[in-house]
Amino acid sequence: MTAAPAARPRAAATSLDALADLLAEGDVVVLSGAGLSTDSGIPDYRGETGSLRRHTPMTYQTFTRDPRGRHRYWARSFVGWRQIRSARPNPGHRAVADLQAAGLIGGVITQNVDGLHQAGGATDVVELHGGLDRTVCLSCGDVASRADLDERLTAANPFFGARTDEINPDGDAELPDEVLDGFVMVGCLACGDGPLKPDVVFFGETVPRDRVERCFGLIEDAAGLLVLGSSLTVMSGYRFVLRAAKLGIPVAIVNVGPTRGDAKADVRVDAPLGEVLPSLAASLG
Ligand SMILES: [Zn+2]
Fold first, then answer.
1. Which residues are found with C-beta within 5 Å of the ion, ligand 1?
2. CA nearest 216: which of 247, 186, 180?
3. Same domain, 36 and 161
4. Residue 129 known to be catalytic
5. Do residue 98 and residue 75 come from a single domain?
């Protein structure tokens, strides 16, 4: 008996023309990741200089079970949020909004928690992993504004200062122990003193089921799926590529470097989003 030849991955088209053809059909859903926000000064966890290489992100388990870990998270986050808050949408975000306004892109699913799609003018954005502009109380579930929390933290920490330490994409910063321990945290205003969590999905936490179903619904109604700036390392995003491929919906991926979804892609462009997206918007928008 001879072994069956190994299945070879489909050869994906690699040209900008192929990408433009897919978008020109309209009803394309975008799935975006950290690579779209690096041009806005928000570093990528997993890219070339990804901070995962030297920084372990906060897990849901540590955050909810370890009050000291939570305290330190908020101290770092108090500093890091200044950079996130001052970040502005880049030409890639604006091109997505332009293509959406032109009717070529429908919904946007983003793994980013920086709010830059919305700031760049996009609508129908599902924040798969939540957003840093809100907090949620672990006791009573109250959702509140991060900007309001920042005012309270600034009042409670007058000497903490505007540090410029290294920032991670979930909005925290590296700080020495003695600085972390001197930080004063405040609690939920709705219930009195409940511990606050940024309204984002941490590592080790599950994306709420209704949010996932909403995204599957977007994919199932789409004529195509366009992945922007994600290596698709985590299943929470990769599952949408799997669903699209299973349904025969064309998948295009634009990312610098390989992604987990490359074998599923019909179009695969390995080039900077800051070049590809404005060029697409100019030719199609
Ligand atoms: Zn509360």
1. 137, 139-140, 142, 188, 190-191, 194
2. 247
3. no
4. yes
5. no
**181 and 281 together in one domain:** no
Q: How far is the CA of 143 from the centre of ligand 1 (A)?
A: 8
Predicted confidence pLDDT, tens digits, the chain (285 residues) = 444 454 445 678 888 999 999 999 999 999 999 999 999 998 765 444 444 444 567 899 999 999 999 998 999 888 888 878 899 999 999 999 999 999 999 999 999 999 999 999 999 999 999 999 999 999 999 999 999 999 999 999 987 755 555 555 556 666 777 777 789 999 999 999 999 999 999 989 999 999 999 999 999 999 999 999 999 998 889 999 999 999 999 999 999 999 999 999 999 999 999 999 999 999 997
The closest of 209, 221, 213 to 247, measured between CA atoms, is: 221
134 C-alpha to center of ligand 1: Å? 13
Domains: count for the chain = 2
Same domain, yes or no: 79 and 21:
no
Sheet holding 224-228, edge to edge: 125-127, 105-110, 28-32, 224-228, 251-254, 267-269
Residue 81 Cα, ligand 1 centroid: separation in angstroms? 21
Q: Indicate if 154 and 248 belong to the same structural domain.
A: no
**Residue 5 lies inside a defined structural domain of this protein:** no
Domain range for 142 is: 49-86+131-200
For residue 2, being part of any structural domain is answered with: no
Q: In angstroms, what is the span from residue 146 Cα to ligand 1's centroid?
A: 14
Residue labelled with tokens 């986050």: 77
With beta carbons less than 8 A apart as the criterion, state whether 245 and 262 touch. no
